[in-house]
Design goal:
elongated, alpha+beta, six-stranded antiparallel β-sheet, 245 residues
Length: 245
C-alpha cells in the first residue's frame, strides 16, 4: 500500500509539473507570436494572442495549433487612396489550423473568421463631403452618419435650397453591403425637396458612397457588414492567413 501511495503521489506531482510547464510554454509562445504580429503589421501596441486547447505541448509536437485567437485594438487599413487610411477598432479573429516554424517567425492559419467595428465618425471622415449638384439649383452633401435601425444606416444630407440661400437637413435610410472589398452605402428611398422630385442619379451622387478597405492583417478580407449603434460592424474571413512571417 505504501508503494502504491508513493506511486500515486509521484504521478500527481508529475501531472502538476506537466501542466505548469505546458502553461509556461503557451504563455511564452503567445508573447512571441504577439511580438512578431506587431512587427509584421506595424502595430502601435502588442495585439492579444490566445492559444486555445490543452495540452499545448502536444500541439507543438504535431506542428499545428488547433485554435489561435487574435485581438487588435486599433488597425489602420488602406483605403486604396494614397495617403488615406481608415481606423478599424476591436478587430477579433479566430484562426484555425495554425502551422508555424520552430522560432514562431512564421505562422499561417488554414482558415480565419472575425469581426471588427468602424465608427460612423471614422467612416464619415473618408466620405466626399463636397457639395454635389442635385439639379434645379439644389446642392447636397453628407454631413452625418448614424444607426438607422434594422441593420440600416441613416445618412444625413445638408441640402442647399436655391434662391433663398437656405439649408435643409434630410435623413435617408440606406442599405449597407460589401462588394469588391468595399463597404457600400445605397439609399433605399429618395426624398422630395420643396415638392420637387430630384433626378435620382444626381441625388445618389451625393447620398450613396463606397469605402474601400484593403490590406487587412494577414490577407483577411471583408465578408459582411451591418449597421449598429456605434458604427458599422464588419465580418472578415480568409484562408491561408499569415499571422507572421
Amino acid at each position: 500500500m505504501r508503494a502504491l501511495r508513493i506511486f500515486l503521489i509521484v504521478v500527481v506531482i508529475l501531472g502538476v509539473l506537466f501542466v505548469v510547464v505546458d502553461r509556461v510554454a503557451v504563455h511564452f509562445a503567445e508573447g512571441e507570436a504577439a511580438g512578431k504580429l506587431k512587427t509584421t503589421e506595424g502595430l502601435a501596441s502588442d495585439p492579444d494572442v490566445s492559444i486555445k486547447g490543452f495540452p499545448f505541448l502536444t500541439q507543438v509536437a504535431g506542428g499545428t495549433l488547433d485554435d489561435v485567437q487574435v485581438g487588435i485594438k486599433d488597425y489602420d487599413a488602406s483605403t486604396g487612396t494614397a495617403g488615406k487610411s481608415i481606423r478599424i477598432q476591436d478587430l477579433k479573429a479566430d484562426m484555425k489550423g495554425v502551422t508555424f516554424t520552430g522560432d514562431y517567425s512564421s505562422a499561417t492559419a488554414r482558415t480565419a473568421t472575425g469581426s471588427a467595428l468602424i465608427s460612423y465618425a471614422e467612416l464619415l471622415k473618408n466620405v466626399d463631403t463636397e457639395p454635389t449638384d442635385l439639379g434645379l439649383g439644389f446642392t447636397g452633401r453628407v454631413v452625418n452618419l448614424a444607426d438607422g435601425g434594422n441593420g440600416k444606416i441613416k445618412v444625413t444630407l445638408d441640402i442647399t435650397v436655391p434662391g433663398v440661400n437656405a439649408h435643409q437637413k434630410v435623413d435617408v435610410v440606406s442599405t449597407v453591403a460589401v462588394k469588391n472589398d468595399s463597404v457600400q452605402v445605397h439609399a433605399d428611398n429618395l426624398p422630395k425637396l420643396a415638392g420637387v422630385s430630384l433626378i435620382e442619379d444626381r441625388f445618389r451622387q451625393a447620398s450613396d458612397f463606397k469605402q474601400a478597405i484593403d490590406q487587412l492583417p494577414g490577407g483577411i478580407r471583408l465578408d459582411r457588414v451591418e449597421a449598429a449603434a456605434d458604427g458599422v460592424e464588419i465580418g472578415v474571413a480568409g484562408s491561408n492567413v499569415r499571422l507572421a512571417g
